[in-house]
Amino acid sequence: MGKRIWDIELMSSEIRRLYEGGLIDKQTFIRVQLVLKREHRKEEKKEEEKDRSK
């Protein structure tokens, strides 16, 4: 796994804490989670392609 995947996972965890602490609303939380999941999938796909080319 690349470092960016770790960063995305950390962001997801931090966003969850913000939501649970009432600092962001549900709509914002869901939107951010969707973006982070999409970016996570992109990075996983990139890693798979990189591994195949070895």
UniProtKB/TrEMBL annotation:
Stored InterPro entries: YqgQ-like, YqgQ-like_sf
Pfam families: YqgQ-like
Name this protein carries in UniProt: Uncharacterized protein
Entry superkingdom: Bacteria
